[in-house]
Amino acid sequence: MLLQDKVAVVYGAGGSIGGAVARAFAREGARVHLAGRTRATLDKVADDIRAAGGTAETAVVDALDERAVDDFTGSVAARAGRIDVSFNAISVQDVQRPLAEISVEDFLRPIQVAARTQFLTIRAAVRHMTGSGVVLLFGGGGPQTQPGLGGFKVSLDTMEGIRRQWACEAGRQGVRVVTLITGGVPESIPDSYAGKDELEAELRGPTLLGRLATLADVGEVAAFVASDRARTMTSATVNVSCGAIVDH
């Protein structure tokens, strides 16, 4: 298995993306530590992993809280001996409206949330990675954008800057830092969203393959990138957008 006996922490593990990646990590042999703010959703993912024969533990952690993040990673490392993989898939709490119509607070919120949570979770993990380790971010966007996104696209670009800087500094201790980017994952859109079918069609339109990534696709790619088979890959984006996002 790709991640046999690896110790992985997943933030936002109760969500669709985080849960998919956590399940994939566990299928590939990782001991997965699930973090998030809602116990019930974390327990659901943990139950699924255990039912499939995997190993999972849960912890309620606010990734905006410096002490909570440091205490969580310290506890994992104390019990497991190290941290091998860290993945952050938390929501950035964006408000999407044209820039001329949005408040300063709503514009800055996703940027601040992305910057703070990524910095805190990466720093905490890297402190417990010695000689090797992998940090995965989710949601870089490439050069393209579109009107009406508020601060959302800027928050994704902020994450890319964070990825580059951490890759530069943490690479000295053997830590790789990689971003997974998609053009949207329809399964992550709540069924209650009134325009789900229209949005899915809009997202599929610019793809080169005529389809979009599934949650399973994201999980499988994340597991590969986190594995030693991708040991030469760092300070990079892995594009699973089916060609919707053009490399630059």
**Cα distance spanning the termini:** 33 Å
Integer-rounded radius of gyration = 17 Å
User: Count the helices. How many?
Assistant: 7
CATH architecture: 3-Layer(aba) Sandwich
Which strands sit side by side, in order, in the main sheet? 3-2-1-4-5-6-7
Q: Tell me the CATH topology.
A: Rossmann fold
- What would CATH call the homologous superfamily? NAD(P)-binding Rossmann-like Domain
* Number of structural domains: 1
Structure description:
- InterPro entries: NAD(P)-bd_dom_sf (IPR036291), SDR_fam (IPR002347).
- Pfam families: adh_short_C2.
- One of its GO terms (molecular function) is oxidoreductase activity.
- It comes from Nonomuraea spiralis.
- The chain has 248 residues and is an alpha/beta fold.
- The chain has a single domain (7-239), classed as 3-Layer(aba) Sandwich (Rossmann fold), CATH 3.40.50.720.
- The protein has helices at residues 16-27, 39-51, 66-80, 104-126, 152-170, 196-204, 215-226, and strands at 7-11, 31-36, 55-60, 85-88, 133-138, 175-181, 236-239.
- It has a seven-stranded parallel sheet with strand order 3-2-1-4-5-6-7, sandwiched between helices.
- Helix 1 (16-27) packs across helix 7.
- The two termini are 33 Å apart.
